[in-house]
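Running log. JK asked me to keep both predictions on one page so they can be read side by side. First protein, sequence followed by its tokens:
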Amino acid sequence: MRFIKWAFLITIWVLFGAFLHYTLPQYDVVRIVNTYEERQELNDWTKIFWSKPDDQSAELINRDVQFIQAVRPSGRNMVYRNEDTGWNWPPYFKFDTANLYTDANDSISTKANPEWVAVMHYGWRNEFLSIFPNAVTINPVAGPEDKPTNWFSIIVLVLLAALFWAVYVRWRRFRRARIDPMVENVEDSLYAAGDALAERKGRFRRWLDSWKSK
């Protein structure tokens, strides 16, 4: 039973952590090398990793998507999608896809004369599932080591930690004040009932023994 309890709790926390990691903004310092537009087929079980703008039907299974190709300072490549989020989740309220596409094209540079930018995005990159993080903003930086501090994610995580701690403390106080006394009373009643039953059994055996002796 204890194993099932811990397995359940670990699963819940892993799913919650994955949700936060996917949803909260992240920053990448990259060099943009190209932009392009490509039609994407959206199947049922990967559709959740693509935006659904307010003006598009939920039944739409394919559409043209803008992409931004980039290279990290380490030389590894990265590809972002450029889609509006509209009023949907996650709440980035992104409506400027065309402007961001222009900024990306204006920031294209070569290896010989690199121009580094910080791309704020959310989501994951997975080649096997063909999913891409969604770029939200593009801002120039001084160099490949000039990564912005992710204050928004830090503040959200601190507030969540404070909330969970407050709930945990109040739950412990409630359990000590209300639940633990009830459990102790039930245990005492069970022990008392067990003692009384044992006493009755002892009396009955002594009565039987008295008859056997006769």
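And the second, directly underneath as requested:
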Amino acid sequence: MTVNWIDLDGLVNLRDVGDIPTTDGGSIARGRLLRSDNLQRLPEQTVQALLDLGLTDVIDLRTDLEVAQEGPGPLTKEPGVSIHHHSLFKPSLTEEQTESKLTTQINSLSPEEVAAQALPWTEVVRPTIEVEDDSASFYLSYLADRPDSVLAALRVIATADGAALVHCAAGKDRTGTIVALALLLVGAEPQAVIDDFAASSIRIEQIINKLSGTETYRDNVLSRPLSEHETRPETMIAFLDYIEREYGSVPELLAKIGWTDEDTAALRAKLLVSAES
């Protein structure tokens, strides 16, 4: 599969999922859905390049503590870009802990406690649904723990005025899950979805080098060998096999948590190449 990489300073895992084939012989349109690693610390020319690509909506899948630790990215200052924060993990803060208290709490924790809360994929937390593949277990748990965020993220993609960009920290696990669901909802070829998910491994060294440059992620990413960070095709296969076995298909599963036929129609209109194109 040809990967539509977009090489911009400050980003190492940015790509357009356009051209992915669908089961009916069509394809995903270019310039509609982008996926990326963390959007922090972007130079001015990269911000402008993203705007030139037609970016209007950013779906940020990071936790509140990740966002607080990393600080606001430059795209938050762009009036033409809407930032939609939809964490896929259970909230680590109570509803009473407001945003203004977030920094105070972080400063009162030890580095180990911050890592445990800001990075809920560490060994401190176990997934709600467990299958043989550990990463797939976490992906399935996103659906069980945060169906609200899953649906909201997919609806932003469907209704974005321009290009929608989905990101987390590395742009491979949480991002890979939401993008895979969006693609499958509009009829993308399952093997092409698996290949897109696995493509992050091509740039895994650059991804880890970038994350290890920040206090938020350094200890976690450097504590494991590079191979453990890779996005293996087997992981997405295990994720999809479980959904098919337990629910029949991705659309059937999402229908059980509130996704509608109208949502699918909007997503198809957004992502698919039209007959007039």
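Observation for JK regarding the second prediction: Residues 106 and 166 are 26 Å apart (CA to CA).
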